[in-house]
Amino acid sequence: MASxxxxxxxxxxxxxxxxxxxxxSVALMFAKKSPDPSTQVGACIVNEGGEIVGVGFNKMPDGxxxxxxxxxxxxxxxxxxxxxxxVCHAELNAIVNKTSVDVKGCTIYVTLFPCNExxxxxxxxxxxxxxxxxxxxxxxxxxxxxxRILDEASTPKNIICRQFESKQDVRDLLDSIDPFAE
Length: 182
Prior knowledge:
- GO terms for molecular function: dCMP deaminase activity; zinc ion binding.
- Its EC number is 3.5.4.12.
- Belongs to the cytidine and deoxycytidylate deaminase family.
- This is Deoxycytidylate deaminase.
- The protein has about 180 residues and is an alpha/beta fold.
- It has helices spanning about 15-30, 90-95, 115-125, 140-155, 165-175, and strands at about 40-45, 50-55, 105-110, 130-135, 160-165.
- Helix 1 packs across helix 5 and helix 3 (about 115-125) packs parallel to helix 4.
- Mean pLDDT is about 85; it is low at about 1-10.
């Protein structure tokens, strides 16, 4: 196939498709670095030239590791005893850890659809594309608000948000990595 052949499932070129698989794999590898025992999330920001300019995973703020609980919000009635009040999300860390002056026009690959707070950061930072792997929290109010934020911001800012659908290709790529190959 020629490199500009369109793929039927989401109208991407073969090159865009391969890039999606690669960059989502990077986001997944960074998710594995998360110390969260229940939800590991990774993010990878890519500029228009196809270069990675930021990566992140969900973790406690620097210097606070081990000082706050990793309990899930449903495990305790007091929100001060749960991770939700303290954890820095993967998207925030990727934006903060950027290696470029800004991330305007970039694409962010995230393993979990952004929450409302991260959606605001994405819009304010000028990111133009959001590619997410899972939307397992789609019924939560924070996720519904995030959809609304990204949808409303897409009119003046042209933000494109889409779900990554080739999970098997990511598995195949990650399985093909052999650090001991000669």
